[in-house]
Amino acid sequence: MPAAKWVPSRRGPLLAEDVTVQAPTTGNRIIAAINRDPLTAPHAIRNDALLAVLTATLAVVLALFVDDGRRPDALGWALLLVSHVPLVWRRRRPVLVLLAVVACVFPYHFLDYPHTAATQAAYVALYTVAVTGRPLRTVLVGIGVITLSVSVMLTISAHEALGLLKASGWVVAVLFLGVDVRFYRQYVASIVERAERAERTREEEARRRVAEERLRIARDLHDLLAHSITLIGVQTSVAAHVLSADPERLDRETVAKALDDIAETCRSARGELRTTLEVLREHGPPDARGPLPGLDGLPDLAEAARLAGARVEQTVRIRQAPPAVGAAAYRIVQEALTNAVRHAGPDVSVRVELEERQGALHLSVSDDGTGPAPGGTPGFGLVGMRERARSVNGTLDAGPRPGGGFEVAAVLPLTTTGKRTG
């Protein structure tokens, strides 16, 4: 059998990244057997039957060659061999197995057969009780076994009882070994459980990050397409109106300007769309996707809205904001201006205000238009704006103004949120 085997990768046999799996060594098998829970180990009955046979063979050899009692007769051999039979079920009923072994071993010792030969089965049963039970049960069992053993040997002679009491240190050692192995297995099991829990946590975190990234890209695409398509639609309407209003007195300059605005909007949309889609092709960390849009891009949004026919008045009383907060404010203003151009009616007046108050960015976009038609199907604009605000632990309110028009108001804390929003 070879010491190692090659496991081909999924991309073909025997490539450079193939993994070499070493065959388990004898030491690894021993450590695995020690770490394995005895109550759930595979082939328990078969292994314990083999252990009982080996222990009985050792007991027979000791009974034949160790002279610490009279040579066993038929009854002695029967008691010695029968004491090993319960070991086959030692994992299922450890206390009952110990009692069965004691019931055979004590008459064996009482009849003064070779004492060393009968200790192996008792030690195995004691070890099983210690390794499978609580420490309190182990202590009680140890005290009971030592007390009963000394009491039985006192019926033979005080000298034998004293010798057994001196040898009871082996009983204590076996019990401590079982308790130590049990604690070691619990320690290993806790390490494995923590590792599995950490792995599950990493997988859940990865899934959460993927979901957040998908939502971010969906919001980006919605903001980009809605804003650009709305502006293109308005500018196209302007060009169409100029062409159809008075064909004989065609204002070529106005038509050319409208077409140039459409082309510029298309170029800008293509650039942003390319930047957004490049995120899907990147294999590096999420933080390597380039600068986020921020407050410095607000004048461009206002100019684009003016080109679409809106009168935009902008007041910015804040110089700097965290990248995530700036990106959220940029997208909220972009969506609010897009909605104003689309729904507020012709010749709409829009006021954009941003200022810092009490450690937060207060944002307001209001217009004096007619607002969306009642009973229309709501889109994803307001939902996206609220998600943007929520992503930086902020709040957003949107609705008709008491004096007419529509207003979007948001409060975005100027603290580091640990999230990136694009």
Measured as a percent range, the helix fraction is 55-70%
Radius of gyration from the alpha-carbon trace, in angstroms: 42 Å
Q: What is the number of E strands?
A: 7
Low-confidence stretches: 1-21, 285-290, 417-422
Overall structural class, as computed from helix and strand content, comes to: alpha+beta
Provide the residue-averaged pLDDT.
76
- Largest sheet, described in full? 5 strands, mixed
Individual helix count: 11
* Gross morphology: rod-shaped
Q: How would you write the strand order of the largest sheet?
A: 3-4-5-7-6
* Strand coverage percent: 5-15%
Distance between the termini: 57 Å
Could you spell the SSE succession in H and E letters?
Answer: EEHHHHHHHHHEHEEHEE
Report on this structure.
The chain is α+β, with helices and mostly antiparallel strands and 422 residues long. The protein has helices at residues 26-35, 44-65, 74-82, 94-110, 119-132, 135-154, 158-245, 252-281, 298-307, 323-343, 381-391; strands at 4-7, 19-22, 311-317, 349-357, 360-367, 395-400, 406-413. A 5-stranded mixed sheet has the order 3-4-5-7-6, with helices on one face. Strands 1-2 form a two-stranded antiparallel ribbon. A hairpin with a 5-residue loop joins strand 6 (395-400) and strand 7. Helix 6 runs antiparallel to helix 7 and helix 9 (298-307) packs parallel to helix 10. The protein is rod-shaped. The chain starts with a strand and ends in a 9-residue tail after the last strand. The model is unreliable at 1-21, 285-290 and 417-422 (pLDDT under 50).
